Amino acid sequence: MRRGALENLTNLRTAVERVVISRTSIEIELAEGMVSEDQNRIQIVPWTPPSPYRRREIILGTDDQSPAVRPMKTKARGLFIDALRDAHRWLDELIGNADQTIEALAMREGQTERWIRRTMSLAFLSPPLIQAGVEGRLPRGLGVKRLMDLPLIWADQWATLGLREPVKA
After folding, report:
1. Is residue 72 helix, strand or coil?
2. How far apart (Å, rounded) are the C-alpha atoms in residues 44 and 40?
3. Using alpha carbons only, what angle is made at residue 76 by residues 75 and 77, rounded to the nearest 5 degrees?
4. Per-residue pLDDT tens for 18-53?
5. φ and ψ of 112, to 5 deg
6. Which of 161, 124, 154, 155 is nearest to 140 (CA)?
7. Which pLDDT band holds residue 5 (cuts at 50, 70, 90)?
8. Using an 8 Å Cβ cutoff, are 61 and 139 in contact?
9. Fewer CB within 10 Å, N side or C side of the chain?
10. For the chain, which residues make up each domain, given as ranges?
């Protein structure tokens, strides 16, 4: 921590005597010497805690009118993240080492060559599609197997999945 930050922290600790957090407010009681005669020692700030339930904006399909689309399952999200990691790792190995082959990767990983090729296709997904998958914002039913073997053109990936491509800000 920098010296100035330490001094500010020390000043703050001497200025505040007590902080009480309740369901609807935060009460900050200032130390005796920190307030003048006409000021209150206790400052009350209205506050409500944030919801523990994160609201996700699910990417809707092109034909979906209903906002009741459910997000992808947590297990499917985890499998997608693991497969995406493997895809990038294997692609880097193939690019970085001229002697590396898909056959050798398949033997080392205990997978078929077809599985390695299909998994590596995830490395070519549209970045917004990857981000939505990592954040769990894809609709339920879009797991690793549905995301493999999509066209290389990003707009076509969205159309093949029947999803609306996000609007660029």
Report:
1. coil
2. 10
3. 90
4. 888 888 888 988 887 777 776 778 888 898 877 766
5. -85, 160
6. 161
7. low
8. yes
9. C
10. 3-46, 74-161
Element (H, E) at 15: helix 3-15
Q: Are the CB atoms for 119 and 87 separated by under 8 Å? A: yes
Reduced to 3 states, what is the DSSP secondary structure of residue 68?
coil
User: What is the reported pLDDT for 62?
Assistant: 56
Report the C-alpha gap between 97 and 12 in whole angstroms.
56
CA distance 134 to 74: 10
Provide the 3-class DSSP secondary structure of residue 71: strand
Count of residues in the chain:
169
| Furthest C-alpha separation in the chain | 81
Token pair 């053109």 is at which residue?
Answer: 153
Tokens of residue 69, six digits: 């689309």
The answer to whether the beta carbons of residues 41 and 30 sit under 8 Å apart is: yes
Q: What is the pLDDT of residues 89-142, one digit of tens each?
A: 999 999 999 999 999 999 999 999 999 999 999 999 999 999 988 888 888 888
DSSP code string of 76-135: HHHHHHHHHHHHHHHHHHHHH-TT--HHHHHHHHT--HHHHHHHHGGGGS-HHHHHHHHT
Pair 31, 16: CB distance under 8 Å: yes
